[in-house]
Fold this sequence. Notes:
The structure holds three protein chains of three kinds.
Chain A: H1 2-15, E1 24-28, E2 36-44, H2 47-57, H3 62-76, E3 80-82, H4 92-97, H5 101-106, E4 111-120, E5 123-132, E6 137-146, H6 151-167, E7 176-183, E8 190-197, E9 204-205, E10 213-218, E11 224-229, E12 236-241, E13 247-249, E14 257-262, E15 268-275, E16 278-285, E17 291-293, E18 301-306, E19 312-317, E20 324-329, E21 336-337, E22 344-350, E23 356-363, E24 366-373, E25 380-385, E26 388-393, E27 399-405, E28 417-423, E29 430-432, E30 437-443
Parallel strand pairs in A: 2-3, 2-4
Antiparallel strand pairs in A: 4-5, 5-6, 7-8, 7-30, 8-9, 10-11, 11-12, 12-13, 14-15, 15-16, 16-17, 18-19, 19-20, 20-21, 22-23, 23-24, 24-25, 26-27, 27-28, 28-29
Chain B: H1 2-14, H2 25-35, H3 41-57, H4 65-70, H5 79-94, H6 99-112, H7 119-134, H8 156-169, E1 183-190, E2 196-201, H9 213-228, H10 239-242, E3 244-250, H11 252-256
Antiparallel strand pairs in B: 1-2, 1-3
Helix pairs in contact in B: 3-7, 8-9
Chain C: H1 2-35, E1 36-37, E2 40-41, E3 49-51, E4 54-55, E5 57-59, H2 69-84, E6 90-95, H3 102-121, E7 130-136, H4 147-153, E8 155-160
Helix pairs in contact in C: 2-3
Amino acid sequence: xxxxxxxxxxxxxxxxxxxxxxxxxxxxxxxxxxPLPLAVSSLSSSENDKEALQKELDIKDIGLEISKIVxxxxxxxxxxxxxxxxxxxxxxxxxxxxxxxxDWALIKAQALITGKVNFQDEKLRVEFRLWDVLAGKEMLAxxxxxxxxxxxxxxxxxxDKVYERLTGEKGYFDxxxxxxxxxxxxxxxxxxxxxxxxDGFNTKYLTLxxxxxxxxxxxxxxxxxxxxxxxxxxxxxxxxxxETGMQEVVGDFPGMTFAPRFSPDGKKxxxxxxxxxxxxxxxxxxxxxxxxxxxxxxxxDTSPSYSPDGKYIAFNSDxxxxxxxxxMKSDGTKVKRISFGKGLYGTxxxxxxxxxxxxxKLHKGKFYIxxxxxxxxxxxxxxxxxxxxxxxxxxxxxxxxxxxxxxTDSKGEGFSAKLWSIDLTGYNERLVETExxxxxxxxxxxxxx
Amino acid sequence: xxxxFVATLSLPLLIKKPIDLPPIISVELIQITDQxxxxxxPKAKKIIEKVKKKQxxxxxxxxxxxxxxxxxxxxxxxxxxxxxxxKKIKEKKQNPERIEDEVKQVSxxxxxxxxxxxxxxxxxxxxxxxxxxxxxxxxxxxxxxxxSMNLSGLTLSEEDALKAQxxxxxxxxxxxxxxxxxxxxxxxxxxxxxxxxKTEILDHARMNKPGQGFYKVLAESALRAVQMxxxxxxxxxxxxxxxxxxxxxxxxxxxxx
Amino acid sequence: xxxxxxxxxxxxxxFLSFLLSACATQTSTKKIDSQIQGDVYTGTxxxxxxxxxxxxxxxxxxxxxVLTTASRETLRKQAAWLRKNPDVTVVLEGHADERGTREYNxxxxxxxxxxxxxxxxxxxxxSSRASVISYGKERPVDSGSNPLAWSKNRRSVTVKAN
Lengths: 449, 257, 162
């Protein structure tokens, strides 16, 4: 018996955890959620190159201008805090060769971007480096060449690379936004298709404003755009080539087609077609022109959006009596309702990451932009407004761009429509500047890949 | 009867991590004796420093068994220490792999302090060291009686001070996915003044896993926090307790809120 | 006696003035209320006429494309006029108010215009004479941001095409 007790004792002692004398562990569960302070040094360039580029592009200091683009992009993302150049101690050319990390740490920069620009053989050659100031080492170094007129894209590409290195996600800065530019009285708005760089520069108008145009969307793989036009008073879905300006109607439908989008491979258009008052979802293959009917229901089926793998379609239907969001397989089978909250749901748009669906919700007279998981769970409302709708995802699935309209006063004045963006976390809601009033924004994929 | 016995033995199991235990009186008292009760304190200190230096190179140290037998705990009146020393004897018997180190150590000791009764002081500190180092081997069986004597935790105030400091240094990357595991564990080796000698990210493999790119970013932010916060706000004494420290950075709370 | 009579008069005057003012406000609110019934605009502010006594439009409740009794009456008048003028072709323009998403509103406008057209067809008008177009929320007739303005915009308008 005694032996048994001793044995048991020994076993118990063996099983005892060592926790009481383990390595000290301290839990750090708080920090500050402020944007990461970093320093963006001007890119250095030789005096000769500066002069040559001034002649070519009419820009005084291209290195400085490119750094401003990077600063602006990083700041607007809400994740970084670019520090003022006034405090910089090292000159751009030296900093790029060998930064004195103490100098940069002194101004509280945790990361540093340096670079240089050469103008040779009619080409811009750009080199940049990202440094970890506190660890005192280089994190990223890249070089690339491009034509001078793409100089703004240089800034966007650098921003994307830095963003990716510091957040682990792809960036969204080398992209464009297409939207509808609006002018005039509310009862007779003049609308044109417009396209601009995501930071608001290089705005171009693609149509003249003679006919109503709505809901333009990018082809994810090339320079084509699809949209709704009331050309000759016949509302139909069209294709527009941004490079050539050529427009062509999609298919030969006997009634209104609208709400168009491209499939993820860019080969099909998915849209609504209204016949005898009923709207159903159809696709058309752009190569062989074959039209396929996807929904067949006496309710309104519209706003279709493919999942990034092309296997599913999210869409808006009032088959339950009111506007709700549904998901079905891309052949139209297995239709499942996924929105169940109070209110009306519309404009579903599948995230490029495949994990979320963004939507517009109307409840008790207020409009919301929100996201939900693809099975409808985890609904999160990001922002509330008198009127807002039609979110579109940035290509990295992090930011949503949408539009808002304001009330008119008793005189019928004060109406405006503007583009806004918000981060997936609900933070960083900001106005997206456009030359005119704007609506129906759509975000392109990354131009460089 | 057996059941009660087993139950009482398992009670310490139910007590949580050392961090949560209240300050152990024994620790503070040892510090006091360091300074006042031992007549030849200065000499002991020198030895302690030397021993600490050795500590940085060797994984673990133990006084040779011979030494232990010479000890007489009369200079130090505390009963807990008696337990420690008794324990030490047990320990040494159970740790044959440390013989190499022991041998090294023996030579050092024999050089410096032959039959010095004041070596008690050195031994007291050494005993602390040993406990700290032995605990790193998780499969060892010892110190069951000791679970109540937590010599290797930080006091609540010490922990709060360190936490507050690091909270201020940690810039949590804002772009992190809010529904993933956001825990980064970093092991630190510290100097007595709180500056960092070495850092090691546990879960290192996760840094390069596809789809976990944010983990690398999170880990880097934690490393930056440690760099920025140097010298860390460490306790003024008891270096042996905290010279190896693990910081568990968890961004979940901040991002979910 | 005279004294109390004066008081009585004053009192009466005050009472009557109160009554009148109350009536006044009642009529003004009544005026707005009477223009919307069951969320459908019943006023005539924006109504135009295809011919004497033939209103050109019908109105709808929010999110609905159901024809009210008044709407059906209007459409019967339109059908009658169309029978009398067999060479006329029309376009039915469907509209929605701004309190909804753009694409759904395009579909809703189409549904409304079609509902009106279908009713005309039941009164012997051939389908080739009436085409349909939806403008969704793009062409409001009243740019106000209030329920009355919105109710005026929820409409299907019959427009002469030739």
